Amino acid sequence: MRLMCVGDSMTIGRAGDFTWRFRMWQHLEATLGGGFALVGPRTELYDTEAGAPLSYAYGAPSFPAGARAHLAGWGEGWLHMAPVIADTVTATRADLLLVSLGLIDLGFYTDSAQTARNARAFIAAARTANPRIGIVLLPVIPNVRAESDAPFAAECERFNELLAKAVADLDEAASPLLLASRPTGYDIHTDTYDGTHPGPSGEHKLAAAFADAMHQAWGLGGPYTPRG
Which pTM was predicted? Predict the structure, then answer.
């Protein structure tokens, strides 16, 4: 099974981060014991000083270089990923996508309706490359901006409703879609380092949201247990 993590700055991580991708790798190693690979065209972290994805300084040296692959970008959203996902799925032969997107779209690029249309376009494009692909989608977690910007908070809520509708409309037995729950107990004031990007506890909770959804719905892996 070949899994690809797709996301924005919360997924790529910055220099020094462990990333939730590392936490997911730990979980899959412990519960599947092999038979999987994390794939993608990128392996870098974002270097905040350079303002570009140039770092390989992961917080966990034990994270194998071959498992660091992903399709995530600082400042990238559904708008950016929809046009490239088909070619990426073809190139990586991905079987399962773990997707965390939307916050950056709503914050800078598109309203909730257009963001939802881009999400649907992403799903359709992924299926053109692999008609049997599975996709797990994480709802948008409103960040600190939503506490003082009521229209933005409303757009986050509206997009999550539209994302749930897209999953209900587009789910197929041959190409299943799964909407993960918001991470249990996620608190932007304690689980992030800046009100948006996850710290270690937030990384665990993001990985758990994906892992528990896959286990509960598909019997894949096991319940998430933090490891280090």
Answer: 0.98
